[in-house]
């Protein structure tokens, strides 16, 4: 069985390393990026099955990644958003971009894995 490919984008290196390690232990093939440019490049190059992205990052936010992928014209993978910001402004952005899967830091990794597996099963 082919491993599912997950792209994780976050500017917090320790978070990125910890989540990447956990996902690899769960059997996923994991690619990482620390900004939206790197995330977009890896998304194009590796065609992940799911993207897990922080919202606030250098070079554009997680929504920028979503918009740029939509403009490519190929099927976009599901996106799971992660953020440390809980505000009305953020809630409005999440609604505006139709973000269905959102986790707030610090996140419950087990809950994230359940959502990830649910998203993969649905797609």
Describe the structure.
The structure is a single chain. The protein is α/β, with parallel strands linked by helices. It has 5 helices and 5 strands; from the N terminus they run βαβαβαβαβα. A 5-stranded parallel sheet has the order 2-1-3-4-5, sandwiched between helices. Helix 2 packs parallel to helix 3. The radius of gyration is 13 Å and the shape is globular.
Strand order of the largest sheet: 2-1-3-4-5
Rg, nearest Å: 13 Å
Contiguous uncertain segments of 5+ residues: none
Give the ordered list of helices and strands.
EHEHEHEHEH
Mean pLDDT over the full residue set = 90
Shape summary: globular
Q: Tell me the strand percentage band.
A: 15-25%
Number of E strands: 5
What assembly state would you assign to the polypeptide chains in this entry?
single chain
- The helix content, as a percent range, equals 40-55%
Structural class: alpha/beta
Largest sheet: 5 strands, parallel
* Number of helices, where a helix is a run of at least 4 consecutive DSSP H or I residues: 5
User: First CA to last CA: what distance?
Assistant: 16 Å
Per-chain topology:
Elements: E1 5-9, H1 13-25, E2 29-33, H2 36-46, E3 50-54, H3 62-70, E4 79-83, H4 88-96, E5 102-104, H5 109-122
Parallel strand pairs: 1-2, 1-3, 3-4, 4-5
Helix pairs in contact: 2-3
